[in-house]
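Late entry, written up from scratch paper. The run itself happened at the end of the previous shift, but nothing got recorded in the book at the time, so transcribing now.
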Amino acid sequence: MATINGQYLLVEDESYDFSIDVTDQPVEKDIDVTDHVQRKPRVLSLTGVVVENAAKFEAFLKEASEKGTIVRYVGRTTFSGLITGFAPSRNYKNATGFAYSLTIKEIRVATTSYVNDLPLPVKAQTVKIVNSGTKQTKDKKKSKAKSKTSSKKGSKSKTSKSSTKEKVEKVKFKPGSPWAN
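Output as recorded:
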């Protein structure tokens, strides 16, 4: 008897789908050139009958399918994945249960590559920047002078550039860095 996450079920048929994608490129003569092969996710299709605890089992399968719970199937083979299709059918032959068709698809869960803390060797190589150099700032006097002169037509600005020049600071690096003098 087979199980899905510990729930027993009777399986009449297990069938697998091992398919691949093949990329074809057309050429002028002869057959197309195939240059790439990629595996698709494996798919397990089950058909069977549920007799005991049918309502509970049907609710379990619907919930697992709707919430995207990864299920583990153990039968003739072992398979893990998401339930992508569940189709129960009821008829007069099985009064307390139902027949079903179930599809489970293999998935791969992505994980983040973000790391909270750097490993010790990398952390030792990084140094905080002491001074990032001189930053250019707008001179408020120049901008006011330009706005006044722009309103007057034909007049020229008489501000001198040499009087507003700032002293340039040298960038300081940590001792031992290749850029330190």
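Strands lie at 2-4, 7-17, 20-25, 33-39, 43-50, 70-74, 78-89, 98-105.
(Scratch paper discarded after transcription.)
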